[in-house]
Amino acid sequence: MGMGINMVYKGVHNVLDFLQNDFPDMDVIILYAEGFSELCSIRSISEAIATSSRTYRVVVLSSSSSSILFSFRLRFCLLRKTIRENAQSFYSMDSDEECSLVLELSENDPFFDEKKKLLRCKGFGPKERIHLKCSSAPSWMNDTVKILLQIAKIIQLNELELYFAEDDASVEFYSSRNELEALNSIVSLTDKSLSSCPHFHTNVLQGLQQKILDLISDFGDQSNMKGVLEKHHSCEREEHLIEWGKSHGVKTGLKIAYVEGAGRGMIAGKDLKVGDIAIEIPVSLIISEELVLETDMYRLLKEVDGISSETILLLWSMKEKYNCDSKFKIYFDTLPEKFNTGLSFGIEAITMLDGTLLFEEIMQSRQHLHAQYDELVPALCNGFPDIFPPEIYTWENFLWACELWYSNSMKIMYSDGKLRTCLIPLAGFLNHSLCPHITHYGKVDPSTNSLKFCLSRSCRSGEECCLSYGNFSSSHFITFYGFLPQGDNPYDVIPLDIDSSDVDSIEDKPVSNWTTHMVRGTWLSNNHSIFYYGLPSPLLDHLRRSRSTVMQTKTFLQGNLENELEVLGDLKDIFDDMMDSMGEVDLDNRESYTWDEKLAVDCKNLQRRIAHSVSTSCCTGINMLKNELHNCLAEDIVG
Ligand SMILES: C[S@@+](CC[C@H](N)C(=O)[O-])C[C@H]1O[C@@H](n2cnc3c(N)ncnc32)[C@H](O)[C@@H]1O
């Protein structure tokens, strides 16, 4: 039913109550604005309406030229609702013959409230049943996939991705990790449904699953992170290791080759599909604490107060490297003599890092390792030289073992439920990618007593097969792995030292769950409009609240605009100071630098780019705000 009402604007927060309580039957809303400031209110009203679980049709009538901007935004809100409406009408069907997919945000999700809010912004609830029925409409499949993906992506967000997505419904892409997790979660859902749906639905489900698999494949093809193979290197020792592995139960179709800039990597010997096992390692070939339990070294070390199983393994591996009778000699023989991680940066490279996050990370880690060595090793060598020969237990060898364990170990969940830090021969040749083929690999399969590395995206014959080492910043990768990942790393953030506790609560009730704040390169954001500026909303909201005790809304009121100006001015100062303290980056001489100096300048350049992007976005925002403020004041004078 359409109904025209003369709606009195009661403020953004009670618009929905107003509509639902006073006009429960209304489904078409006509918003009319004469001047600029009325248009600003309309935008806020329309945003509030867009969060409703009911569908309203909103029409904007305006005499102002700025209406184009708002109509665009409104159309966007409407579009989201219309897609959902259409899709639901395609899915509606006989309940007896129902086949549906249910996407549900778990109430145990640590970010349940934030994700629920984001789902609402997009017009979804925490539990959505999507009914599937092949429609005659050609777009039904695309519409269905679009909805499934929108929901799945939000459910699969991790903390950091959520921080940068919160309060901004326009975000469609969060990270490659998120994209792959979301797509794979729908593949699993369709798998489950295929086993329980009546057989006449299998075509629909299989069609849907194939569509998702095609999307996964397209996504992999688009990612520009394929390793270039260096054919002139010999991999004889590595091939021996593969043969040894296979003779002890390893199953794999992967080969080893040198990859430009990454050392050795694993290459698919044939086309591999989503779900295929790239490599399977029997537990008997995994190096974990189990292996040292029977040694004299273990019996001695377990008496040392507070020593961890990781430290015991590290000390064991220092000696095992030189043990000619080791069961793992062939594995130790393939390990690099030097790891070249941030932990072994020279003094020149460290000096270049002054003012960067990497400087702090490397210095703290080195201090920690030196303290650990000094506390433990000399005493062991003096007390038990037979077990800890001083010529093996040097600082250099200790650092080598630390770098080995930091850069090559994986945390594995064993069948007894215990998480163990392990070295895994062969799987240790898998390099990292921001768009990995393998995302889940940490659990022993009790039925085979082996560790399986299954593909979350396909890998063509001859292509390097990569996994994800984790969602780390580039400074973490440099410190502990010795490389800077290729491409945009969404986890490259600059944390801000802001205490949220006092401003982010009203009468002891938190208004936001974010207690720490950060920024990342604003080129990663697609919303640079006023009130967003490519910056994270939780940070902006926090700074707004700390600057003004008045409730802040995203409306074009003079007070709000003035507060925004101050917030952006403060942020800009912080990042301009950061750039000043880091100094310039000399990229012209990069080729003459040593390996560690190259990593140092690249990392410094990255942090500078992030700081510069934040400062530039603040500057653009300040200019936009000044224009709006000017318009606002002009309206007031005319009014
Ligand atoms: C687990 S090992 C992988 C095998 C290693 N490439 C080798 O030759 O032994 C981890 C190390 O590989 C290298 N690496 C892994 N992924 C990389 C990447 N994306 N880019 C550059 N180097 C990488 C780093 O040196 C890292 O410390």
Automatic annotation (TrEMBL):
Q: What does the record give as its pathway?
A: Metabolic intermediate biosynthesis; (R)-mevalonate biosynthesis; (R)-mevalonate from acetyl-CoA: step 3/3
Does Membrane appear among the keywords?
no
The UniProt entry, under PROSITE patterns, shows:
HMG_COA_REDUCTASE_4, SET
| InterPro entries in alphabetical order | HMG_CoA_Rdtase (IPR002202), HMG_CoA_Rdtase_NAD(P)-bd_sf (IPR009023), Rubisco_LSMT_subst-bd (IPR015353), Rubisco_LSMT_subst-bd_sf (IPR036464), SET_dom (IPR001214), SET_dom_sf (IPR046341), SETD3_SETD6_MTase (IPR050600)
Gene3D superfamilies xref list: Hydroxymethylglutaryl-CoA reductase, class I/II, NAD/NADP-binding domain, Rubisco LSMT, substrate-binding domain, set domain protein methyltransferase, domain 1
Q: Where is the SET domain?
A: 252-470
Identify the keywords attached in UniProt to this record, alphabetized: Isoprene biosynthesis, Methyltransferase, S-adenosyl-L-methionine, Transferase
Principal location class: plastid
The record, for Pfam families, names: Rubis-subs-bind (PF09273)
The signal peptide annotation in the UniProt record is none
Any one GO MF term held by the record is:
hydroxymethylglutaryl-CoA reductase (NADPH) activity
What does the entry list under GO cellular component? Answer: plastid membrane
Record's subcellular location: Plastid membrane
State the superkingdom.
Eukaryota
Membrane topology category: Multi-pass membrane protein
Q: Name one GO biological process term.
A: isoprenoid biosynthetic process
Q: What is this protein called?
A: Rubisco methyltransferase family protein
